[in-house]
Amino acid sequence: MVSLKDIAEKTGLSKMTVSRALQEGSSVSAATRESVRACARKLGYRPHLAARSLRTGCSRTLCAVCGEPDERGFARLAAFVETSRAAGYDVTVMFVSGGDSRAAARLADGIFAARAGGVAVFPDKTSLGELVAALQAGGMPCVAADMDLSPADRPAGTTVEEGNRLTDRVSIDRQWGMQEAVRHLIAGGRRRIVYAGLDRANSRGRYEGYCRGLDAFGLSPESIITRGHQFADGRTAADRLLAMRARPDAVVTFDDPLALGILNRFLELGVKVPEEVALVGFDDRPAAAMTYPELTTVSLPNRELGQAAAEILLRRIAGDSAPAGALSVTVKTQLVVRRSA
């Protein structure tokens, strides 16, 4: 992290002069002020605003930054707010749609200016890694909820990057839920179980769980890769599943919208679910319980995630000095058995 000393060494000025030049309304000359600020920008300097806030008095307010939430995101947010308020904290909620490092820095500055005691970041469908980095650079207590700070294209089998290890996080064990789904299908006599889903980093936990579930029973994985994971993608996937040389007797999917599209197309073509093909979704969206047959799916622990994020943040604010990342926890998914499998 760049310090006042680094800027002083680059400009040949004293730390006191550098500090005054970075303050609004200081008495240093315009030329000195511009020289110092230009150097600060070049080096990527950010003041330790959290420490400054503590000197001036920090309000009992937490901040929750959300990407583009759906019903799952709002459940997480509600649990975070309830837990925070029970501890005597108000919560300010900010909704953002991503942005570059400059946008993240501006948002971080706004959070510091509001003197928030800590921040929980709920990315949902939005990448907010830059914001987490900006908050950490300023010393703000921060927890990332269901958020992988590694590059999206990280090769399978590589270690998690430094950002993940140095950030307090709440993670969801999607692999466990998929293993439960496979075990349930095998217990019901299914043996040709195919995975339908995305070929990208955020599907890795699901797919690895699927493979491990099969491996435990000596079965081999087989998958079809979809372009997306919406209802229409599911209908297209259904045709491909039925065209396989050995038709599957069970399908597990990336998420519920994909599964519901498959189910819709199966029923349209007269394929009986679950008699001919059992079907399992993932996420437990409200629609999963409204279709016919009702969709067996893996439920995400959304409220538990929001509650855990608040509890970690409250511990940091209370002075827990465990190393960054040491307060990270993982919450498990749960299989919800309905009529489709």
Task: Looking at this protein, list some descriptive labels.
single chain, 341 residues, alpha/beta, six-stranded parallel β-sheet, 13 helices, 43% helix
Describe this structure in words.
This protein is α/β, with parallel strands linked by helices and 341 residues long. Helix content is 43%, strand content 15%. The chain is built from 13 helices and 12 strands. It has a 6-stranded parallel β-sheet, with helices on both faces. Strands 7-6-8-9 form a 4-stranded parallel β-sheet, with helices on both faces. It has a two-stranded antiparallel sheet with strand order 10-12. Helix 1 crosses helix 2, helix 6 packs across helix 7 and helix 9 runs parallel beside helix 10. The longest helix is centred in the first third of the chain and has 16 residues. The radius of gyration is 25 Å and the shape is elongated. The termini are far apart. About 4% of the residues have low confidence.
Oligomer: single chain
The rough form would be described as elongated
Percentage of residues in helical conformation: 40-55%
Low-confidence stretches: 150-162
Radius of gyration: 25 Å
Mean pLDDT comes to 85
Write a concise synopsis of the structure shown.
It contains 13 helices and 12 strands.
Give the arrangement of secondary structure elements.
Blueprint: H1 4-11, H2 15-21, H3 30-43, H4 49-56, E1 61-66, H5 71-86, E2 90-95, H6 101-113, E3 118-122, H7 129-137, E4 142-145, H8 162-165, E5 168-173, H9 174-187, E6 193-197, H10 204-215, E7 223-225, H11 231-242, E8 250-253, H12 256-268, E9 278-280, E10 297-299, H13 302-317, E11 329-332, E12 334-336
Parallel strand pairs: 1-2, 1-3, 3-4, 4-5, 5-11, 6-7, 6-8, 8-9
Antiparallel strand pairs: 10-12
Helix pairs in contact: 1-2, 1-3, 5-13, 6-7, 9-10, 11-12
